[in-house]
Amino acid sequence: MSDTPAATQAASIASPINLILFSLLILLAYFRLRPSPPSTLPKGPAPVVFRTFTPPTLQPYDGEKDRPVYLAVRGKVFDVTPGKNFYGPGGPYENFAGRDASRGLACGSFDEDMLTKDLDGPLDDLSGLGQDEMQALQDWEDRFSEKYLVVGKLVAVSEGQEGS
Amino acid sequence: MAADSTSILQQLDSQIENIFAGWNIYSTLIALVLAAYLISPLFLYTEPDVHPLLLARQSSASYVRQPKESAIFRSLETPPGYPLKSGLNVKDAGQPKWTSGRAGDLRDVWKRAVSGPVDADGKPTGGETGKVITTYGKEGVIDYSFTKLSSEINAVGQHMKAHGGNRVAIHMPNSVELLVTFFASAFYGLTPILIPQQESLDTLAGILMETKADILVAGAGSLPLKELLQKYPNLKQVIWVVERTSRHMDWNEVGEGEGGKAEIAVWHDIIDEKQAPSEFPVDAPENSPANVVMVTEDAWSAMDSYELTEFTQANFVAAIGAQTSALPRLHRLAPTDTVTPLASLAEMYPLTVTLAALFSNASLALTSVSGPKAPYSAAFQGASPTIIIANTETLSSFCKDKERTMSSSLLGQFNQWRKTKTLKAGTMPKTSSLTNTPRLIYTYDKAGASTVKLDPAELFKLKVYSGARTIYAFTDAQVAGAITQTNMLDYQSTSADFGPPLSSVEIKLRDAEGGRNSDDKALGELVVSGPAVVGGETVVHHIMTMTDRSALAYAS
């Protein structure tokens, strides 16, 4: 006689619904208490290495085939890829891409004859430019310095080799 | 065809009904516990002290790097392209509201401590100034107000200036007199030379000789004067600082020929006789503050050798300015804080943090028990500090002692487990206000010279045992203040780093034999530059790296 109440009692603790509820509890406790890995930010792009360019080595950076767009103003090479619409292929100033743009910016002209023809020769020494043009060039340089990153310097083929 | 094809749904239904038929009191109990566990975070959740993503990138790097160097890393307050923090931004009263303040010098630190907090225009708001409390061992605690200390500064400064001499060597434990002499040299155009406690007389004489000290301020009876003057006879003045218990003795009486050419004076006599006013001397060229010489135990050579560094006022104010803005806005040094330096004030980092505390109008509690061998409990005798500056040795021995006591009792272990869990979730566990709990502990590693280094697990345990947040700074002998400093709200225990650079310096890693930079990893010798660095730029000859969280660390 005394067996049955004990048996039913044992059965009632371990009844299916109890087991289900209990395992839910354990599962919840596990997910709550397990250690979570610390939050990480994805790494940003690696910093660009400052390079010494010569006109032939600068020329490839004209925006073709996903290459960045660089242009040089008075010896400083700027990464103008954010302004690819202007300076990249198909843009109004595309002649400047990968070239020394100093004379062109000073005179406000995008013609071919503003660029140095001989890439292996000396750099454009900006002779024959008056006060107004030099002022315009200075303004352009300041604007570029504020907007774009300086990623290198431009020297003539005779002066420099690639900085290693 | 008929009744045997009970559909799947009906079979499922009857199964579920069977399961739920077993519902009883135990099911209700478990269901209640489950519901409570599900809903409790709604009521019990506390946000972490700082957003985890803010700790994921702690310094800002430049976008371009020179070949053979890494990018330049700077504090998030002064990213590349902005000027580094170079001063205290002191606005004199009466200047227009929108002018930026001037850099200032050490005199402005004291003047701010005296005047109390100022508003944006430079006018004192009339808030409470702090005070300086000194614990004299068993004799008790003495309060000094800043006006009283200002008159002491004037008295001592005028005395030193009148009796000749330009360079004053201070060889004392942490005390009010050390601070007063330090500021007196700033106000009266003398060069203070801060010397950490030396045991060997030869070393001390050597330091005095190399720094060409004219005046020596030391604890009375702490050195055999006769021998010292034999080794270094060029002292013009000696000022004894006498403890209260020994003041009945006559320190002016020296034996025949013992004093040599040096005039011997006693501190309390100078103060009592002069009765100087508490206004400061007008800015005059001969009173313009001079450089400060710090003596550091040389890291790489043998014992008893030291390095002398001359810091300019500009170095100091850049470091102090960076310290005042380094802490998160809600946790900055404030007039409600009491700062106890347990490390010697003759070391650069504790001195910088103490000056930053003075500049922020906090109170100071000084105790002469200081240095690497001082026990942690010495900070709590006579004062309840909220901020402590200590050496790694002190904290390491505190952790070891506490670990023994905490692990012995079950309650202690449970407390430890609970606090560890809260810390890992990003919040600081609350401690009862009854026990002595500071809110912040500053400690520092001297590049190459520290005898004890704290690893991240120890720092984590320190937070658990002391109940305080910690700051671990990386310092060097040639840099005022610190180079980098961990974020005080960063409670991690896995990465052994020193945090981001302060806003007064910028760092980069240069290729060296032990490590070269690559596109993914910055590794090399540390080059520090900025207004807080002596000579503008210095190299720390250790191979270091920047972690994934943009914090500085030793490259292991």
Automatic annotation (TrEMBL), chain A:
GO terms for cellular component: endoplasmic reticulum; membrane. Residues 53-155 form the Cytochrome b5 heme-binding domain. The keyword Ion transport does not apply. Its main location: endoplasmic reticulum. The chain crosses the membrane at residues 12-33. One of its GO terms (molecular function) is heme binding. The keyword Hydrolase does not apply. Keywords: Endoplasmic reticulum, Heme, Iron, Membrane, Metal-binding, Transmembrane, Transmembrane helix. It is found in: Endoplasmic reticulum. Belongs to the cytochrome b5 family. MAPR subfamily. This is Cytochrome b5 heme-binding domain-containing protein. The lineage of its organism: Eukaryota, Fungi, Dikarya, Ascomycota, Pezizomycotina.
Automatic annotation (TrEMBL), chain B:
It comes from the Eukaryota. Coiled coil: none annotated. Keywords: Membrane, Transmembrane, Transmembrane helix. Residues 140-253 form the AMP-dependent synthetase/ligase domain. GO terms for molecular function: long-chain fatty acid-CoA ligase activity. This is AMP-dependent synthetase/ligase domain-containing protein. Gene3D superfamilies: N-terminal domain of ligase-like (3.40.50.12780). GO terms for cellular component: endoplasmic reticulum; membrane.
